[in-house]
Design goal:
This protein is an alpha+beta fold. The chain contains 9 helices and 16 strands. It has helices spanning 15-27, 79-94, 103-109, 112-121, 135-145, 167-179, 234-247, 275-281, 285-298, and strands at 2-7, 31-36, 40-45, 48-53, 61-62, 67-70, 98-100, 129-132, 148-151, 162-164, 184-188, 195-202, 205-213, 226-230, 251-259, 262-269. β1 (2-7), α1 (15-27) and β2 (31-36) form a beta-alpha-beta unit. α1 crosses α9 and α5 packs antiparallel against α6.
Length: 299
């Protein structure tokens, strides 16, 4: 059986994770197949949806895989390019491929605003947050929060994230964002005791947890945080499992801060990188992801 891995041809994100997935597929006696979302041909006719791919000038070849892991859709330089890649990946689902994570929940979970709204509406604990395009609203939010974190809606690994405690300094950041047509995402800073937890969930079950011990205020491993094995409390596991359920995801990493007021869900990562987690815990999420995907295919 062929098991697809959906990613862009232009660049490979987190190659170690892709290699883990491919090896997990092979160990189960199946064949991993790269599905390049930016090289797909979506043929649309009455009653027929045909998915093929061709690399360069090669002849298009039919995509034949009953299931696939969605890793990434690439870097978008245009809104129409973003839409094409989303719907090209969605076309795989429409053609009968079980895509994991499902495409539209993957898109929503990768957007901090959309994900936080869903989690908050489900009455899950999230940090107080304000999202706007108005610099003066952002200015007032920083004044109310005292200390605040300014993020990108679709950022990753802690890059381009600011910690501010002065509304006037924040105003200059907001001015820059508005000038490049970016929205303003302001979140109350949480005192989280030297780091935060990442709980990895696959198929409605927490398979492991790590504590990302930070050297500064950022807890991202890419920013120097040290991953350590952790034993998740029942409350931590329940929050992580519930977060994925609310967002409609099959697997993901849930970042949770522990504060004096209790736990807060910071983010849900539908395309988590797990090399630090694997090193710290000895657990390879790829094994669980592929097992669950095969289970879903066979149902």
């Amino acid at each position: 059986m062929h098991i697809g891995i959906v990613r862009p041809f232009e660049v490979e994100f987190n190659p170690g994770d892709v290699a883990d997935l491919e090896e997990a597929v092979r160990r189960r006696g199946h064949t991993p197949v790269k599905i390049y979302v930016d090289m797909l041909e979506v043929g649309i006719e009455r009653g027929v949806l045909r998915i093929r791919q061709a690399v360069g000038r090669g002849q298009p070849v039919a995509v034949e895989a009953p299931g696939a892991v969605l890793r990434h859709l690439g870097i978008f330089r245009d809104f129409e390019q973003f839409l094409y890649r989303v719907w090209a990946a969605k076309a795989l689902e429409e053609a009968g491929v079980y895509v994991m994570n499902p495409v539209l929940p993957w898109v929503a979970a990768g957007d901090k605003m959309a994900a936080l709204m869903k989690l908050a509406k489900a009455n899950l604990p999230v940090p107080p947050t304000v999202v706007t395009e108005n610099m003066f609203i952002g200015y007032r939010a920083v004044g109310e929060f005292g200390r605040a974190v300014v993020k990108q809606l679709r950022g990753a690994m802690g890059y381009g994230v600011f910690l501010v405690d002065n509304p006037d300094v924040a105003f200059h950041i907001f001015s820059m964002l508005v000038n490049i047509n970016k929205p303003i995402y302001v979140q109350k800073f949480l005192e989280k005791g030297g780091g935060d937890y990442r709980v990895v969930v696959v198929g409605g079950r927490a398979v492991g947890a790590e504590f990302r011990r930070a050297e500064g205020w950022k807890s991202n491993v890419a920013q120097g945080a040290r991953p350590e094995p952790a034993k998740a409390t029942p409350e931590l596991e329940e929050l992580a499992v519930r977060a994925l359920e609310v967002l409609g995801l099959d697997y993901g990493g849930v970042d949770i801060a522990e504060t004096k007021e209790g736990y807060y869900i910071l983010e849900v990562n539908p395309t988590m990188s797990w090399q630090g987690f694997k090193q710290a815990t000895g657990i390879n999420p790829a094994e669980h992801i592929i097992d669950y995907l095969i289970e879903k295919i066979r149902r």
